[in-house]
Design goal:
About 20% of the residues lie in helices and about 20% in strands. A hairpin with a 7-residue loop joins strand 2 and strand 3. The longest helix is centred in the middle third of the chain and has 17 residues. The N terminus is likely disordered. The structure holds adenosine monophosphate (AMP). Adenosine monophosphate (AMP) binds next to loops.
């Protein structure tokens, strides 16, 4: 279906995945990262600017810009991201005490790297609602 030119919403260009975003470059090993886990579907590595004593990211190997761009074909990849987040939290020794899992979707929600990622934070108390 063709949308009228004045239709609201992001332009096609804004929806384009940038293959040179920093997480794509980490996935290609062009940028170093402190990797905690890797498998065929995802990579988990420490956040470069940790907001808690433990703060790591889990990113899918699929080029998904943000959660809202994911479709039914990504269901398994998304489930795998969350299972990996919990498994790595356990491996890091923070599984029992509690940890925060966050996904920032879009610049308005604080997303700064446009390759889908799950934040996992632990080792301090967390406020609710989040800031
Ligand atoms: P967000 O603001 O939700 O898009 O989160 C992006 C996160 O990526 C921030 O917490 C950054 O500190 C982190 N980050 C940016 N560049 C790197 C990098 N090269 N290695 C590890 N973490 C990074």
């Amino acid at each position: 279906m063709r949308l009228p030119a004045h239709s609201a919403g992001p332009t096609p260009a804004a929806l384009t995945y940038d293959p040179n975003n920093v997480f794509a470059r980490i996935l290609r090993k062009e940028v170093p990262a402190q990797v905690l886990h890797e498998d065929e579907h995802c990579l988990a590595f420490r956040d470069a600017a940790p907001q808690a004593p433990t703060h790591f990211l889990v990113v899918p190997k699929r080029p998904i810009r943000m959660l809202a761009d994911a479709g039914p074909g990504d269901a398994q990849a998304l489930g795998h991201l969350l299972l990996t987040a919990a498994a790595v939290a356990k491996q890091q020794g923070v599984g029992d005490r509690g940890f925060r899992v966050a996904i920032n979707n879009g610049a308005g929600a604080g997303q700064s790297v446009f390759h889908l990622h799950v934040h996992v934070l632990a080792g301090r108390n967390f406020a609710w609602p989040p800031g």
